Amino acid sequence: MAFSLAVYSTFYPSDQDSFHQCEDTGCCSANAGGGHVHRDHHGAQRELMLASLSTMMSHGFKSSKQDFTFGPWKVTAARNHIMKSKDIERLAEEMNMPSLPEMLFGDNLLRIQHTDGYGIEFNAFDALKRVNNMEDAVKVACAQEWQESRADSEHSKEVVRPYDWTYTTDYRGTLIGESMQMKETKTSERIDMEKLKAREQIMFFDEVLLFEDELHDHGVSMISVKIRVMPTSFFLLMRFFLRVDGVLIRINDTRLYHEAGKNYMLREFSTRESKIAELKNVPAALYTDPNEIAQHLTLKLTECEKLELPEMQPQTAVNDDLQ
Fold it and tell me: 146: closest CA among 221, 91, 93, 249?
C-alpha cells in the first residue's frame, strides 16, 4: 500500500497554545474505492464521504477489516454496515437515551494492541456512553422541533425528556487488556509536532467513521478516527465535529502518539468551540470543513496524559533462576 508523502506535507498555521498545526492526516480523504485524494477545495472531505455513502447504497457495501503489524503492535481497522433502525432503538433503550445518531456504525473500530494483550481501541458505543443523557446542552429554537420529530419515529412514544441531542462526547478511547492495561497519568510533555512534519514513509493509513447525524438538517454531529504509521512512530487523531447551524461549532480532538523505544504513549485532548456570531470574519464556506475551521475556533481546554506501558517481568531471568 503506497501513499504520496506530499499528501502529508500540508499543515495548519502554527498555534503555540494548542499545538494544533499538525492535522496532516486530515489532508487526505477516503474515496469509495478505498484510495485517498488530496483535498484541493473547501468541503471536499464532506462531499467525498457523501459520495462514498451513495455508492455504498447503490452498489452494495462490503464490510472490511485491515490488520497491520509493526514491531510488537498490531493496528486493526474494521468497517461494517450502518446499524439497523431496530438495533439502534434497542441500544437507545439500553443506554437510557431517547435517540441515537441516525448513522451509527456499531461494529466499526480502530484498535492498537500490543502482543502482550494490552492496548487502546476506539468504538462508537463507548463514545456514546460519554454523551450527557440527562441535559440538553445546546438550547436552540430547532431543538424541540428536532426532538418531536424523532419521538414519532423512534422507540420513545412519550414526552421526550431533555438530553444532549448534539451527541457531544469527550471520549478519548478505551483501554483494553485482560491481565494488564496501560496506566493513565497526567503530564506536561507534549506531542512533538515538528517530528510529525518530517517526511517519513507512511507505512499504513486508515480512517474509520463511528457515527454521524445531521441533526434534522440543522447541522452535523460526527466522530471519526484516523491513524498513520511511520517506521519509527504512529500518530492517531480522533475528532468529534459539531456544527449547529446559526449557533455554534465545536471540535473535540484526541491525539495519540507513540515513538518506538519509549515506554509510554502521549495522549492530548482538546476542546475548541466558538459561537457562529464570533466567526463573523471567517468565510461561511469554512464552517463545513473541520480541518479548515479548527484553527479559527477558541481553545477551551487542553489535557495531556501519558499512557504508560505495563512493565513486563523478565521471564527469562526467572526461568534461569529456577533451573
Answer: 221
Q: How high is the pLDDT of residue 36?
A: 39
CB atoms within 10 A of CB 27: 18
Beta bridge partners of 271: 252, 301
Question: Region 57-69: what's the mean pLDDT?
Answer: 75
Q: What pLDDT, in 10s, does the model give residues 74-124?
A: 999 999 999 999 999 999 999 988 899 999 999 999 999 999 999 999 999
SS (H, E, C) 134-189: CCCCCCCHHHHHHHHHHHHHCCCCCCCCCCCCCCCCCCCCEEECCCCCCEEEECCC
With H, G, I as helix, E, B as strand and everything else as coil, classify residue 190: coil
Residue located via cell numbers 431543538: 143
Residue with cell 506535507: 9
Give the angle subtended at the CA of 134 by the CAs of 156 and 277, to the nearest 5°. 105
Distance CA 177, CA 182 (A): 8
Backbone angles phi, psi at 230, to 5 degrees: -110, 170
Lookup result for grid cell 445518531: 101
User: Given pLDDT bands bounded at 50, 70 and 90, which one contains residue 249?
Assistant: very high
Q: Could you give the CA distance from residue 282 to residue 132 in angstroms, rounded to a whole number?
A: 30
Q: How far apart are CA 260 and CA 72, in angstroms?
A: 10
The grid cell for 36 is 485517498
What's the pTM?
A: 0.76
Report which of 207, 258, 268 is spatially closest to residue 73, judged by C-alpha positions.
258
Q: Rounded CA gap, 56 and 48, in Å? A: 12
